[in-house]
Design brief:
This protein has helices spanning 4-34, 36-49, 64-82, 89-96, 102-132, 143-170, 174-198, 208-212, 221-226, 235-258, 273-296, 299-323, 332-350, 375-378, 391-406, 442-449, 452-458, 489-505, 508-511, 540-548, 552-555, 582-590, 601-610, 643-649; strands spanning 366-372, 416-424, 429-436, 469-476, 484-486, 519-525, 530-535, 562-569, 596-598, 611-612, 619-625, 631-636. The protein has 650 residues and is an alpha+beta fold.
Length: 650
C-alpha cells in the first residue's frame, strides 16, 4: 500500500506537468526548428541545387539568435510558473499544509523543472545524431560537436534557471522575480561597465577600454550565451558555471527553509534585503547618470548633476518597487545619509587615497613595457603586442609617465592617447592610459621613437629573414591598376636592406609626417607569411633605388597619371566639402574665381608629394585622374604648402 507521502509526490508531479509542461513542448519545437530542421533544409538545398555555401562551424551558429532567446527566456518563465505557489497566499497555504517537508517540495519542483529544460535538448541532439550519417554531416561537424552543443546548452539553461529559482525564494511577486533574475544575471558585467566609464573621472590614467574589454563577457551568463556561436567557452568558465549551479541549488534550499509562509505579495521577503536593494539600485542609477552626463556634457558640473539626477531617479524607482505603488512615502533621511556617504567617497577619490595615480613602478621592478597610442594596437589579435626591454627606454618611459601625471591639469582638453603597459618581474601588470598633447612631450617621444629598439619592435620588416623572401609587391595608393613586382632574389634582399636603413635613419619628425604615403609594400615570405609596410615620402634612398632599377613609374602615382589639379583656400569655398561628393566639390572649384589650376608636371609631382587625405589644412586640393572617372579631394597642411601655391595666393 502506497504511503501518503508517495501519493502526494505523485500528485505534485501531475500538477507540475499540467502547469509547466507546455514549456517543454515550446522549447522542443523551437530548438527543432532552429537546429535539426535548419540542417535538413540546408543540406537538401545543397544536394539538389549543388550550391556552394559557408556551412556552420558549430551547431550554435544555426539560428544563433533563436537559440539564445529560447535559452534566455524559457528557463526564467519556467521558474516563475513553477514557483508561483510562493507568490499566491491560498496556493502557498495549501502547498505547505500537505504532509510533506519543505525539502521534498523543493526537490520535486526544482528537479522536475530541470528535467523539463533538459529533455528537449536531449531529444534534438538525438535527432541530429540520427541524421548525422545519412546527411554526411561529418564533412563539417564531428560527433563531439554535437555533444558539446548538448552539454553547453544544458549548462546555460540550468544556470539561468537556478538563478531564477533562487530569486523565487527571496521575493513574493512574480514580476519582481522575472526582473530581478535578469538584473542579477547582468549585474556583474553591468557594474564593470559602469565602473569602467566612471573611474576615469577620479583615477587619472585609468584605462577604461582595457578594463572593459578584457573578457568581461564571461562575467554574465546572458552575454556569454549570446556570443557562444562566435566565442568558444573555456574550461575555466565551464567549471565556474557548474559550481554555480550546485551552489545556487543548495543556497535556494536553505533560503526556502528560512522563508516565512506569510511573506507573499512582497517584493522582498527578508527585511535586511530591502535596504540592500534600495541603495544598490540608487548606486547603479547614480553611476549610469554620471556616465551619461559626464561623457555627453563634460566637466565637473555635469558629472555631479548626472550623479544627483541618477541617484534621485534610482531611489524613487526602488521605493516604488518596495512599496508596490507610485504614490510612495519618501524616506528623505535615508537618502541624505546616502548622499553624504557618496560625497565623502568623492572627496577621497579626489585626494587619490588609493595612490593610484602615483603608482609608477621603479625601473628595477620592470621586466618590459608596451608603449603605444591606443589600446587597440595592444589588443590587436592579428599580431602580438610589442614591448621595450632596454633599460634606457624603460627609464625614458617612466620619466615620460611621471611628467604626464605631474601635468595632469594641462591635459584635460587633449585627445591623443599615451598607453602604458608595465609587465613587472613579479608577474603583475600595471596599465595606464592618458589623453595628452604629444607636442608638449616631444623631447621624450623623440628619444623613444628614434631608439633602435623601438624601430625594431614596431616595424615587422625587421622580422623578415634573408633568403626567405618569395616576392615583393609595391602597390600605389589610388585609382590605378599598375604595380611593381620584384622577384629577383638579390634585388629583393637589396630592397629590404634599403628599407631597413630608411627606417633606422628616420627622425621623429619624419615619422610624424602626416603626408600621404606613396604605396603599400607587401613582402611575401616562403612560409606564406606576409609583411606589410608603407613607402613614406621621406624614403628618398628607396625612391632613387627604384628609379635606377626602372621600377619607379609603376611603384607609385606620379604626374603622368594626373590630368588636372585644382587648389583653393579652404575658407573661400562656398560649398561644404564634407557634405558633398568629390565630383560636386571638383565642379564647384572648377567654376570658382580664386582657383589655381595645375597641369605642369613638376607642380603635379610636388602636389602629390605634399598632400594628405583628410581635410584640415588651409588649402583644399582636387585631383582629377587621367581615367576621367575618379576624383580625389585632399589638402595641404600648414607645414607642407608648396612655394608655388603660396606665391599664387599671397
Amino acid at each position: 500500500m502506497q504511503s501518503k507521502i508517495s501519493l502526494v509526490s505523485k500528485e505534485m508531479w501531475k500538477t507540475i506537468l499540467r502547469s509547466v509542461g507546455w514549456v517543454a513542448i515550446v522549447y522542443f519545437l523551437g530548438l527543432f526548428i532552429a537546429v535539426p530542421l535548419e540542417i535538413l533544409m540546408t543540406e537538401s538545398k545543397f544536394e539538389e541545387e549543388h550550391l556552394y555555401f559557408q556551412r556552420a562551424k558549430n551547431l550554435f551558429e544555426y539560428n544563433a539568435e533563436i537559440q539564445s532567446i529560447l535559452s534566455i527566456a524559457l528557463p526564467v518563465l519556467l521558474a516563475i510558473f513553477l514557483f508561483r505557489f510562493l507568490q499566491v497566499k491560498h496556493f502557498s497555504d495549501f502547498m505547505h499544509s500537505l504532509p510533506i517537508k519543505r525539502e521534498r517540495i523543493y526537490h520535486v519542483f526544482t528537479l522536475f523543472g530541470a528535467v523539463i529544460l533538459i529533455t528537449p535538448v536531449i531529444l534534438n541532439a538525438l535527432i541530429i545524431l540520427i541524421i548525422y550519417g545519412p546527411l554526411n554531416l561529418h564533412e563539417f561537424l564531428t560527433i563531439s560537436d554535437v555533444f558539446q552543443w548538448l552539454g553547453i546548452t544544458i549548462m546555460f539553461n540550468l544556470v539561468i534557471y537556478m538563478v531564477s529559482v533562487f530569486v523565487a525564494m527571496i521575493t513574493g511577486l512574480s514580476v519582481v522575480q522575472g526582473g530581478l533574475t535578469y538584473i542579477l544575471l547582468l549585474l556583474p558585467i553591468g557594474l564593470i561597465i559602469l565602473f569602467g566609464f566612471n573611474l576615469p573621472f577620479y583615477l587619472y590614467g585609468f584605462p577604461e577600454q582595457y578594463f572593459m574589454e578584457n573578457k568581461i563577457e564571461s562575467f554574465s551568463p546572458l552575454v556569454a550565451l549570446s556570443l557562444i556561436s562566435r566565442r568558444p567557452i573555456g574550461w575555466g568558465e565551464i567549471i565556474i558555471y557548474i559550481l554555480l549551479i550546485f551552489i545556487l541549488y543548495g543556497l535556494s534550499l536553505w533560503v526556502y527553509k528560512q522563508r516565512r509562509l506569510e511573506a507573499v505579495s512582497q517584493a522582498l521577503i527578508f527585511p535586511f534585503m530591502k535596504p540592500i536593494f534600495k541603495y544598490g539600485a540608487t548606486f547603479c542609477s547614480m553611476l549610469l547618470g554620471g556616465m551619461y552626463f559626464g561623457k555627453m556634457g563634460g566637466g565637473a558640473f555635469w558629472l555631479i548633476a548626472g550623479y544627483l539626477f541618477g541617484s534621485i531617479l534610482g531611489y524613487f524607482i526602488a521605493e516604488m518597487v518596495l512599496q508596490k505603488s507610485w504614490r510612495i512615502i519618501i524616506h528623505i533621511r535615508g537618502f541624505l545619509i546616502y548622499v553624504c556617504a557618496m560625497a565623502v567617497l568623492f572627496v577621497l577619490f579626489q585626494l587619490d587615497f588609493t595612490q593610484y595615480e602615483k603608482n609608477i613602478p621603479y625601473t628595477s621592478e620592470i621586466e618590459r613595457v608596451h608603449f603605444g597610442n591606443s589600446y587597440y594596437h595592444f589588443n590587436n589579435t592579428e599580431a602580438e603586442p610589442y614591448y621595450l626591454e632596454d633599460t634606457d627606454n624603460i627609464e625614458l618611459l617612466r620619466r615620460l609617465h611621471k611628467e604626464i601625471v605631474a601635468n595632469k591639469g594641462d591635459n584635460t582638453s587633449s585627445r591623443e592617447s599615451a598607453f602604458f603597459v608595465y609587465e613587472l618581474k613579479n608577474g603583475k601588470r600595471i596599465v595606464r592610459n592618458y589623453e595628452i598633447d604629444k607636442n608638449k612631450y616631444a623631447q621624450f617621444y623623440k628619444l623613444i621613437y628614434e631608439s633602435p629598439e623601438y624601430k625594431r619592435v614596431t616595424n615587422e620588416i625587421f622580422q623578415v629573414k634573408e633568403g626567405q623572401i618569395e616576392k615583393v609587391t609595391i602597390q600605389p595608393y589610388g585609382p590605378v591598376s599598375k604595380r611593381s613586382i620584384i622577384v629577383d632574389p638579390s634585388e629583393m634582399e637589396e630592397a629590404i636592406s634599403i628599407l631597413k636603413d630608411e627606417i633606422n635613419q628616420a627622425t621623429y619628425e619624419e615619422m610624424q609626417d602626416n603626408r600621404d604615403a606613396y604605396s603599400v609594400i607587401e613582402i611575401l615570405q616562403r612560409n606564406d607569411k606576409t609583411v606589410m609596410m608603407e613607402w613614406r615620402v621621406s624614403y628618398k634612398k628607396f625612391e632613387q633605388w627604384l628609379a635606377e632599377k626602372g621600377l619607379l613609374e609603376n611603384a607609385r602615382i606620379n604626374a603622368s597619371d594626373i590630368d588636372t589639379a585644382y587648389i583653393a583656400p579652404k575658407d573661400e569655398l562656398d560649398i561644404d566639402y564634407r557634405g558633398y561628393s568629390h565630383e560636386e566639390v571638383f565642379k564647384q572649384m572648377e567654376s570658382s574665381g580664386n582657383i589655381l589650376k595645375v597641369t605642369d608636371k613638376t607642380m603635379l609631382e610636388t602636389t602629390l608629394k605634399d598632400t594628405k587625405g583628410y581635410i584640415d589644412g588651409p588649402y583644399v586640393v582636387a585631383i582629377k585622374y587621367n581615367n576621367d572617372r575618379y576624383i580625389d579631394i585632399k589638402s595641404f597642411s600648414s607645414d607642407n604648402v608648396p612655394d608655388f601655391v603660396k606665391q599664387y595666393f599671397e
